[in-house]
């Protein structure tokens, strides 16, 4: 099925993935946590290159993908609404919203692809300035630098996103927060213990232990025990 809005087209279809394919691609597991995000190098919609990815979820709402022109006029937002994929797109400050008729919150893999289409002479291309965000938009970005008002407050995506491509190439992952990286990548060895979430910080795997009750570099230290050690240290210094 296709979404058509101005000069951008998106096609959604079910996809069956083999286990071998899962082992070759970088997969992102989103937990639906506040201020989660994965940030990729900008996708330039004016190049006519395809943008595609596969996803799987069992939830009905959440932000899949977002990019814009730095808070001026143009934006593209893919999200889940009532278990279906919604495309919201603005070009030349004219917004269009299209909702697919297919439910996708069925824990099955679905394939989504977008490409540039026939272009309007007065405005040949959608302007894209921002990086591309998956699963959420960082809270530290100024709202004035985001074209779609309230996008940072949208519920984060919960599920798996696999094999993001710009044309036939994999874009560079600039960083992530609250996202588990699977398959290949710095977090592929799952260094975080006790349910800690691995994310990239300055290109290095780092553990988010905030929801685990544990602390330390790898979420391996019991917080209560650590607090007791610190208390004992303070008492010994008195």
Q: How does the SSE layout of this entry go?
A:
Elements: E1 2-5, E2 8-14, H1 19-22, E3 27-31, E4 37-40, E5 51-56, E6 62-68, E7 75-81, E8 84-91, E9 94-99, E10 110-116, E11 132-134, E12 158-166, E13 173-177, E14 179-182, E15 197-201, E16 204-208, E17 214-215, E18 221-222, H2 223-237
Antiparallel strand pairs: 1-2, 2-10, 3-12, 3-14, 4-11, 4-13, 5-10, 5-12, 6-7, 6-11, 7-8, 8-9, 15-16, 17-18
Question: What do these coordinates show?
Answer:
InterPro entries: ConA-like_dom_sf, EGF, Laminin_G, Neurexin-related_CASP. One of its GO terms (cellular component) is membrane. This is Neurexin-3-alpha. Residues 27-187 form the Laminin G domain. It contains two helices and 18 strands. It is mostly beta strands and 238 residues long. The strands form four sheets. The protein has a seven-stranded antiparallel sheet, with no helix packed on it. A seven-stranded antiparallel sheet has the order 9-8-7-6-11-4-13, with no helix packed on it. The protein has a two-stranded antiparallel ribbon with strand order 15-16. Strand 6 (62-68) and strand 7 form a beta hairpin. The longest helix is centred in the C-terminal third of the chain and has 15 residues, at 223-237. It is globular and about 55 Å long.
